[in-house]
Structure formats: C-alpha cells, structure tokens
Specification:
The protein is an alpha/beta fold. The chain has helices spanning 2-28, 136-144; strands at 38-45, 56-59, 62-73, 78-86, 96-101, 108-113, 126-127, 129-131. A hairpin with a 6-residue loop joins strand 5 and strand 6.
Length: 148
C-alpha cells in the first residue's frame, strides 16, 4: 500500500513537471497556440530585400507584430507581405509601411507610420502606402560605375 502511494505521488510530480516545461517552452519561445490575439494585414512592396518571415513589425519604435509570410505576386511582379498585428493596435487605412534596417548592417523590419484617417483596417485588408527597402549594394554600384 505504501509503495503504491509513493509511485502515485512521483507520477503526479513528473506530470506537473512536464506541464511546466511545456508551458515555459511556449512562453519563452514566443509561440502562439491560438492566434486570437492577432489579426493579419498585407502590404505590397517593390522590394523587400533582406526581410525575413518572423521579422518585427514596429510602430513608434514599439514591436506590435511580426511578418507572417512573404510571397511574390506573379502578375504584378511585386512582393506581398502578410503581417500579424496585435488585436489591440488599430491601423488606419492611410498608414505607411516601410522596410527599415535596424542599425547599420542589422536585420530588416517593417515600420508602420500611423495616418490621420478615421477608417481602421480590418483583418485581411491591405496597406496601400508602402516604402521599399533601401538596397545599399545597388546604391554603391551606381556610385562606383557613374550612375549617380
């Protein structure tokens, strides 16, 4: 009888430990099991050179979301970026999405500049105003070969 109660207590302790490790894995890995705290919007850019899936989306220097997917619009030959934005952040229809670089040679991220409109984008809407990434290699080659 005593051996069975000790084995039961150890089993419960191991089960609680596994639950705690799973919870910490999700929280520290910044994974979302249920995506109800976010909504998706899209933006179309001429170039998103260096931007990666999972890159930060910021407004006023504060992270408000992540880049969810990057694809190519075959017909128009432009890049389409889908972003996951926190549900408590409202983005107006005249907001400007820009691809920026963190630091001199840092990672790329999306900067959202708020607009003055009263119309708020809903899930699945598209940000019309965009600024593409600045391609340093292209600028240097233009300068070196006399394009400027």
């Amino acid at each position: 009888m005593k051996k069975a109660s000790i084995e039961t207590a150890v089993g419960i302790f191991v089960f609680i430990g596994i639950l705690c490790v799973g919870y910490l894995t999700v929280k520290l890995g910044k994974m979302e099991l249920l995506g109800k705290n976010y909504y998706s919007v899209q933006a179309q850019f001429e170039s998103v050179a260096g931007l990666k899936v999972g890159a930060s989306v910021e407004m006023a220097g504060v992270p408000i979301g992540k880049v969810e997917a990057i694809s190519l619009d075959i017909e128009r030959q432009i890049a389409r970026v889908r972003m996951k934005i926190q549900s408590d952040v409202a983005i107006t229809d005249d907001a400007i999405a820009s691809v920026k670089t963190a630091g001199l040679i840092g990672d790329k991220y999306i900067k959202l500049s708020p607009g003055g409109s009263d119309l708020v984008l809903k899930a699945g809407d598209t940000i019309i105003e965009t600024e593409s990434a600045l391609d340093l290699e292209d600028l240097i080659s233009k300068y070196v070969f006399g394009g400027i």
